[in-house]
Amino acid sequence: MNVLITGASRGIGKSIALEFAKNKCNIIGCAKSDFDGLSDTKQRVNALGVDCYIDLCDITKEDDIRQFILYATNKIGCIDILVNNAGISYIGLLQDMSLSEWNEVISSNLTSAFLMSKYLIPQMLKNQAGHIINISSVWGNVGASMETAYSASKGGLNSFTKALAKELAPSNILVNAVSPGFIDTEMNKSFDKEDLNAIFEEIPLGRSGKTEEVAKLVYKIATSDYITGQIITIDGGWT
Ligand code: NAP
To answer: Which of 53, 54, 86, 108 is deepest in the core (most CB within 10 A)?
Structure first.
């Protein structure tokens, strides 16, 4: 199986790459600028005995995506599983946000999933098989204060997932989303110890989630033949 993962240079995307590699899948991964992080992923994936190809690709740019998919299919062949993982957060009051900041969040977190899917679905249709797994967020389900654009992008990604699942089910292509709560990654590096303790008090399991825990869930979904159109939350009981 060949798995394409966006944002594979660190955090959740890197753990997803390693989880699939442990299960003997070949990996193709991209990031926008973090080539060192991608190279580390490649080294660790190769050490597990499977192929890994990496490249820089800004998923907000259609031309980058087209080139990356061409590179991917030349190197590895058809993509069986697409994981739309890369994304950015934005914390701040809505009225202080500029239009370009809004557009950056929506194109990174939502339009990117459209473009990646658009260019990979034809291969999956040929195979009459495939999985698209979108990494959403609990804020896409319930909304977060100071994260309106982020919540809107992930809420949009949830609806995108449900609609596309219905569109592609007759072709045996399964589309799902994973909706993590608070996961220990660089995305949350701005929180200090006091913030973290306050958050952990609200989480019934009393801790942040691990990237490996999200990755295991993504792998399970990708190995199921009868789950589609679902938004699966992994948040320690938080929401
Ligand atoms: P992270 O540590 O900040 O990593 C983000 C990854 O996405 C990096 O590899 C980054 O590479 C890449 N990326 C960002 N913008 C990109 C672009 N325009 N083009 C290509 N790659 C891009 O984030 P994370 O915490 O692992 O989050 C991964 C996903 O999980 C995101 O969609 C996020 O919204 C979601 N999520 C995270 C949490 C959490 O608590 N961490 C909770 C819920 C959902 P570069 O540095 O090179 O840009």
So the answer is: 86
